[in-house]
Each structure stands twice: as C-alpha cells, then as structure tokens.
Amino acid sequence: MTEPGAEKLLLIVEDDEALARTLKRSFERREYRVLTASSHDDVVELLKTEAPGFAVVDLKLNGASGLACVQTLHAHDEEMNIVVLTGFASIATAVEAIKLGARHYLAKPSNTDDIEKAFGKTQGDTDVELGTRPSTIKTLEWERIQQTLADADFNISEAARRLGIHRRTLARKLLKRQVK
Predict the structure, then answer these.
(1) DSSP letter at 153?
(2) Helix (H, G, I), strand (E, B), or coil: what is residue 33?
(3) Phi, psi (degrees; rounded to nearest 5) at 56
(4) Do the beta carbons of residue 13 and residue 67 sit within 8 Å?
C-alpha cells in the first residue's frame, strides 16, 4: 500500500458529478489528496502530470466503458490500487475488470469504508463463502446481457442487435434490474 506519512493520491473516475463530489469530500476527510475525472480522455490527461496510487473507476461512463480507464491506469502503474464501482454489476464485467488490472470490484451502493477496505485487499481470499444456490435462468440471462453490453462498449442498440432482440426490449430489461 502506501508508506506511513506518504501522500495518498486518489483518482476518482465518475461521470455523476454529485457522487464524485461526495466521494471526493469523504476521502479528503481521510487525508487523501483527490483528483477527479469524468471520462477516459480526462484520465489520460491527468496521468501526464499526476501519479495516483489509488483509483475508483465507475464501470459505465456516459455510455462508454470504464474498463478502458482501468486498462490505461494499470498500464500507467501496475501497482496502482484500482477499484471498479458499478451499478451494473455482473460476473462478466467483474472478470474483465480484474483481468485488466483492477484489484477489486464493488456494486453500488458502496460507501467510502467499503472502497477503502477494497484498497486493502491485495490478495485473494480462499476462505470466501461459496454459494450453494444454482443460477436461475433469469440470472443467466442477466449475465449474458451484461457480457454483451460490455462487448458492445455499453451501446444498447448494438448489444440488442447482437442479442437478437429489439432495442426497447433490452432497455426495459435493463430498467427492471437496475441497481439503485
């Protein structure tokens, strides 16, 4: 993690200004110096002059994928503690985020305590509880939709085309399972 007395520089990549502002204030109270970005382009610009040790990245940024930000941040510094925060959690996007360099993946709503705890989890946990309940057809459908959305860079029209369903049908399915 960071050495005692060292500056803790955090980058928050979030397009929801209210959430970004709330997270920023909360982490500043915990003695982090906080930078914010709302897009992949903003991240690229910030990395020219800053070297954050921590990052919180929203998975869905104004219709674009936050996974590109994870990849860019990890390429910039392989030791960076990156946590992906999303309201559209799925196994498919969690796996991709970890493959691209995220250390942890949290579903919204998550608070500052959850995020800071995730920063501290640099190793896997072999004692994590294994579920005994098999996946339902609805869960499998949701996972397929989320994987296709991620593959289509969160373009709903393209994802609907790939799934072979109407765009409005896909939009309705997404609204039904929306995480608040």
Answers:
(1) T
(2) strand
(3) -115, 120
(4) no
- Determine if residue 35 is left, alpha or beta; phi over 0 gives left, psi from -120 to 50 gives alpha, anything else beta: beta
CB neighbourhood size of 81 (10 A): 25
Q: Which helix (H) or strand (E) holds 64?
A: strand 64-65
Residues near 30 by Cβ (< 8 Å), separated by ≥ 6? 112, 116
- Per-residue model confidence as pLDDT tens digits over 145-178: 888 888 888 888 999 999 999 999 998 888 876 6
d(CA 180, CA 168): 21
120-146: pLDDT as tens digits: 876 666 665 656 666 677 777 888 888
This model's pTM is above 0.90: no
CA distance readout (Å), 164 to 45, 139, 146, 158, 167:
38, 18, 14, 10, 9
Q: Is 167 exposed, middle or buried (0-12, 13-18, 19+ CB in 10 A)?
A: middle
β-sheet bridge partners, residue 95 = none
